Amino acid sequence: MTNAYPQVSQYQLRTNPLRTLEQLRDTPHGLVAICPSPVFAAIVTDPKLVETVLTDNTGCFQKSSRTSLVNYAVGDGTSSSDFPPDGSPYYAPFNSLEEFRLYKRRVIAPAFNPKLMSMYTEGIAEYVLQALDPWQPGQVRELSEDMDDLMLRTMLGCLFSRDTDLHLIAAGRHLRSSDSALRRRLRSSRCPSSAAVDRSPRLRLPPRLRLPCRDNHSLWQRRHALHGAIERLMRMPQHGVSRDDDLLSLLLSACYRSTGKPMSKQQLSTSLIGLFLAGYQNSAAAAAWTLWCLASHPESQDRLAAELSEASLTRASVSSQRGQLPYLQACISESLRLYPPVWSTAREVMRGIRLGGHTVPSGSVLVLSPWLQHRRSAAWLDPDQFLPERFLNSQPRAVGDYFPFGTGPHCCPGESFARLELTIALRTILLRWRLERAPGHCPPIPMLGVTQKPEAGVFVAISQRSKPTA
Hints:
This protein has 18 helices and 12 strands. By secondary structure, the protein is of the alpha+beta class. It has one domain (2-464): CATH 1.10.630.10. The strands form 4 sheets. Strands 1-2-8-5-3 form a 5-stranded mixed β-sheet. A 3-stranded antiparallel β-sheet has the order 4-12-9. A two-stranded antiparallel ribbon has the order 6-7. It is globular.
């Protein structure tokens, strides 16, 4: 069976995913094998097949926990190899991981209710203004770090309704600084997917991850910092008006119908890990890349600044009238095309199926890559160029050609909140500041790790615009 597929080296994909995807982005094949055994895995390169897998509602595909770097480094509560003391599976009382995932999506859905967006707008705007306080004309700012801090405060304040104390901010910075060590260890180790985040005493780390070297020490620190931040978050009281629709309150109050019991501490803790990191790292990466693209294309930045100055939006109306900022939305969409924060995702085949003229057996893993599909020359004119104008027409994009937030039953539930964050942050920043490439600093290099982030930072020189009108 595997001889029927073209194949790329699994080692090459792990050590240099960017180069591998560059080689595959215009391949005529529908499936490219990356692992023939013991579990067959392949990258889906045909956009029609990508759409088939993403939009399937028959239960043929489920979100995979076998081959995801996100599970290595983050852990969303569904990939843990540890089990409760009574010997029941981690996802008990559900029959499968998929059922548990769907349950969690239903539990947290109220936090992303469109009716809450106007309430979030005011809070996001205040956090952005606070983040801009240290900015001074003539400075060189490192946007990756600035946006990380901003989006962490925004997520905790709006979605979790908790204050951002120094402990949580320090944990977020520590996670960012140790990310490179994590990637090096994971790419050179055959560790279970939960080893990077689970510090349970029952966990058995591979010998290579137990060696007392610098990278392993950083990895251990990362795990403990992450769990410490989550435990502290669970103990923190709400700020301001008491709410029952923030993420933490929803998870704490949820009870299983079959047992009447709440989530176990382990389920709650590891579920929050995924929400904690995905809630700010992806948005921070998207904001940093969008600002870099605009700093590198002054004509686009000037056009956007003119649109922002002319728009008569108040803070409260931004969430309901984003259509009045078409060029800003086009810039965000184009940045997400070039630099999707979630650069790959995986689906597990639950029963044998025909794809691309081949039979894919049950248990196989299919990797879908927005980075790959977003840069196909067959779908995009000048695919490597930042051209926001391509999103100004009303023609919808095919699902298999553009899916920065996914689609179908496993799409990102926080897409509307993430776009609102980006809209308010970019609007506020670009009304006050003009960005240019910082002299003496190299352009950022895409780093395809847990999140697709800029390596070595995003450095821009800032100068003040005239006093904003809105």
